[in-house]
Write a structure and sequence with these properties.
With 321 residues, the chain is an alpha/beta fold. It is built from 13 helices and 12 strands. It folds into 2 domains: 117 residues, Rossmann fold (3-Layer(aba) Sandwich), CATH 3.40.50; 180 residues, Rossmann fold, CATH 3.40.50. Strand 7, helix 8 and strand 8 form a beta-alpha-beta unit. Bound molecules: (2R)-2,3-dihydroxypropanoic acid.
Length: 321
């Protein structure tokens, strides 16, 4: 494949570059420590046979049109595919791929880290210690909500939602889930399928795990949030736009729910200023899959997907509508 070249839109772990180079592909890496602007991306992509990209690259019709006819594949280093225009790619004969499975466990771990941090007010407590403002132990200080024995509501029982539910066994939690279809794997863990409204009304923790589609955009709206228990905690490690952030800020400000833990936002990297002003919100910078092993494997899989397409073989993870 020595005459083939691949563009990598932003730094990836070395394992991904090594896989491409090992397959005889010439690699060009965006040297900037930022994503390319749409016009910069359009200028690059048509010069390569394939592109390794990120969820921060909007691969829309204009980018795909600029990439064709030479470029045959865009390989996302992500499981999420909401940055892809799948219909336009199909029309132009460009294959789109992603990296499912490999990041399931790391993301489920992070969802739990966020759940626990939010329930037990870790962000707020650590800020007090760092500010030198801790005046010693106090019986009434930093009172959070219990986790063990409570009810966990999983919205979207795919791979990650199911992995989050599996961890709930260690906390003797009851698990509810909602999804379009009954899901055998989560039910084997003892989870019960309910409608979204029942899940919101009865869960102590609500954890979101749906992909972002037109159907799930603002799936959790103000009406839904106001159905949640006052002591409930909301966790979002899926996509920011699954939640109406403006409504959530209002609900949190009113103390209508106990707290929220967010790893993702509707317009990243913009974090709603309203969230920043609230103590009962734990905010992370989209790090669900951010372990060295997981990110390295994601980069390798993206590289393997590109290599397969360029060799005329079926890639592991084709994205279709
Ligand atoms: C994904 O893969 O979609 C996550 O959001 C980042 O790893």
């Amino acid at each position: 494949m020595s005459s083939l070249s691949v563009y990598v839109t932003r730094a990836i772990p070395e394992a991904g570059i090594a896989a491409l180079v090992g397959a005889g592909v010439r690699v060009r890496l965006n040297p900037l420590a930022r994503s390319l602007r749409p016009e910069e991306l359009r200028e690059e992509v048509g010069r390569y046979d394939g592109v390794v990209c990120h969820l921060t690259d909007r691969i829309d019709e204009t980018v795909l049109t600029a990439a064709a006819p030479r470029c045959k594949v865009f390989a996302n280093c992500a499981v999420g595919t909401d940055n892809f225009d799948v219909a336009a790619a199909a029309q132009l004969g460009i294959t789109l791929t992603n990296t499912p499975d490999v990041l399931t466990e790391a993301t489920a771990d992070l969802a739990w880290a966020l759940l626990m941090a939010t329930a037990r007010r870790l962000g707020e407590a650590e800020r007090v210690v760092r500010a030198g403002a801790w005046r010693g132990w106090g019986m009434l200080d930093f009172l959070g909500v219990d986790i063990h024995g409570k009810t966990l509501g999983i919205v979207g029982a795919g791979r990650i939602g199911t992995a989050v539910a599996r961890r709930a066994g260690g906390f003797s939690m009851k698990v509810l889930y909602c999804d379009r279809e009954p899901m055998a794997e989560i039910e084997a863990l003892g989870a019960r399928r309910v409608g979204l409204v029942e899940l919101l009304e009865t869960s102590d923790f609500v954890s979101l795990h749906t992909p972002l589609t037109e159907e799930t955009r603002h799936l959790l709206d103000e009406n839904g949030m106001r159905r949640m228990k006052r002591e409930a905690v909301l966790i979002n490690t899926a996509r920011g736009a699954v939640v109406d952030q403006t409504a959530l800020a209002e609900v949190l400000r009113e103390g209508r729910i106990a707290g929220a833990g967010f790893d993702v936002y509707e317009n990243e990297p913009l974090v709603p200023p309203d969230f920043l002003a609230l103590e009962n919100v734990v905010l992370l910078p989209h790090i669900g899959s951010a372990t060295l092993a997981t990110r390295s494997r994601m980069a390798e899989i993206a590289a393997e997907n590109v290599i397969a397409v360029l060799r005329g073989e079926p890639p592991m993870n084709v994205v279709t509508e």
